[in-house]
Amino acid sequence: MKNIVVLVSGGGTNLQRIIECIDNGEIPNANISLVVADRDCFGLERAKNHGIPTQLIPRGKSFSSELKQILPANTDLIVLAGFLSILNKEFCESFPGKIINIHPSLLPKFGGKGMWGHHVHEAVLASNEKESGATVHYVTSGIDEGEIILQKSFKISDGENLETLSEKIHTIEYEIFPKAINLVLSKI
Ligand code: GRF
């Protein structure tokens, strides 16, 4: 059984999808041992509703060191599922190949500091991109720079707006995130 720790900052629909995939066997032999948030958010409620232990570590300079202290010793994989804080270099380098993130664009496009949530979608629409999508990648100390694990794109339609873009990207995320988790877990 592989133990996963999930980090969240928001609504946690990707967390919900991972919980469901573990329950229905799409992600086999895995368990979420802890959900950590860097702020009060609905993702924490989702975890509690499923009896998953939770921890709130307020965002700030000491987040990474506090996380390191409370991380269960048997953690196999750390999954960032809509997590907004930046993990420091020391933390990232302590868990090489064991931290993954989902990003709502076709990295390396529209990644880096400040590129999250609606900022990404606004930038994509403003640059008249022909396609967008989502990417699951390894987390390294360079923001959104780690090796890509899975990526899926779709064509941007005429009249696409923030809402439709976000909805299409979430649908892609629910598809590729569990697949990427399985791929990574098969190598751990
Ligand atoms: C997702 O679009 C993800 O790519 C980004 O944050 C969003 C989280 O959504 N990092 P949710 O909280 O899982 O609904």
Structural class per helix/strand content? Answer: alpha/beta
Named once each, the bound ligands are: 5-O-phosphono-beta-D-ribofuranosylamine
**Cα end-to-end separation:** 11 Å
Uncertain stretches: none
Characterise this structure.
The structure is a single chain. The protein is an alpha/beta fold. The protein has helices at residues 13-24, 42-49, 63-70, 89-94, 117-126, 162-185; strands at 2-8, 30-37, 54-56, 77-80, 99-103, 131-138, 148-155. The protein contains six helices and seven strands. β1 (2-8), α1 and β2 form a beta-alpha-beta unit. A seven-stranded mixed β-sheet has the order 3-2-1-4-5-6-7, with helices on one face. The site of 5-O-phosphono-beta-D-ribofuranosylamine has 15 residues, from α1, β5 and α6.
